[in-house]
Predict the structure.
Amino acid sequence: MKNVASLLLLLALVIACKSVKTIFENKTPHEEYADKLEEKHLDETPEGRRWLDASEKALLDAQTIQLPYRQNGYFHAERSDALALQFSGTFGERITFELIRKAGTPLTIFADLFQRKEKTSRLLSADTSTNTFTIDLEETGMYVLRLQPQLFQKGEYSLAISVGPSLGFPVSGNKASIGSYWGDSRDGGKRPHEGVDIFAPKLTPAIAAADGVVTGVKEGGLGGKTVWMRVNDRNTFLYYAHLDKQLVQEGQAVKKGEVVGLVGNTGNAKTTPSHLHFGVYTSAGPVNPLPFVNRTIKTAPLIPARNLSARIKLTKPQRTSNGTLLKVNTELVPLAVNAVGYIAELEEGNIIQVPFSSVKVMQPSANRLAATVLNSASESKRL
C-alpha cells in the first residue's frame, strides 16, 4: 500500500507539470515519465512494472495498418495498456498525426514514432498536449507509432493519420498537371524516366519546391535549360529541366515559392508540349519525385461511433498472428475501432484485430457493472 500511495503522489506531480522538458531537455515525454517512476523506485511495484513492460511489449506486438488511417480508441485504467500501429511509408511523404483526447478527459497519451530496421530507432515523440505533429520521411520502410497513457488513466481519444507531400508543387497555377511519371519508357524502352513531367502553358513560372540554394544553372544536353537546387537541411537536390528561361544564379538562396525559371520545351523536349521535367536526387541517385510533390492529401473517412468501454466476444473463431485458434465466446477488451473492425486485447495481454462481423458487444452483468462502478470511484478518489 505504501508503494501504491507513493506512486499515486508521483502521478499527481507529473500530471500537474505542464512541461518537464526543462528538467530532462533531451528526453522524450515518455522517457521523462518513466524516469520519474524509476527515480522513486516505483518501477519495482506491480503497477510500475506492468506499465514499463507494456511499452516494450507493444513494439513487439504492433498491429499492421494501411495509410491513410483513422481510429477511435479507449484506454482502460486497470490494464496499463500500450498500443502500437505498424505501417509502410515512402521516402518523400509527409505523415501527419492528429491525436485528440475526448473533451474533458484527464488523459495524457504519449506518442512515439519508430522506424523498423535492423535496429528499431525512435524518430519522433509527442503527447496529447500537442494535438498535431508531422514527419517528412527520409526513407522508404516500415514505421511504428506507439500510444501509451499515464498510469491509472482512462478515457477516449481519436487518432487520424494522413499522407501528403513534403515539398511544394514546383509549377504555379491550377493548369499545371503531371502527365508522365517515374519509370515510364524513354527512347523506345532504352531507359526509364527518372522524374515526372508537369505540363503547363509555356512561360508558366517554375517555382522552388522548398527553401534552398541554387547549385547549378546550365544549358545543353537532354535537359536543355536547367536549374539545380539543394534543399536546406537535407541531402536532397531538385532538378528543373526544359526551361524556357532560367531566372536564378548559381549560389543564390531561394525561398519556397520563389520563381526559378519559366516552363518551356528546350533540350530533347522541342517536339513536345511545354512542360517541366522535375527530378529529385540524393547521394544514392534519383528517386521517385511523386511522393514529394503529389498534391493529393490522403485522409481516411470518418468512422461510426462504437462503445469501447464494454467488452466484446467472438461470434466466429479467429486466429491470432502466431496461429492460435480463438474459440467462439472468447472475451476481448476493445482498445480501438477503425473502418473495418476492432483492435482488441485478450485477457493475457495479446492484441488482435477482428472484423465487426466476428464479434458482438457484451452486456455487462449486474455484478460486473457494480464492480466497474466501484473500481472507477476508488480510482477517482486515489487520483
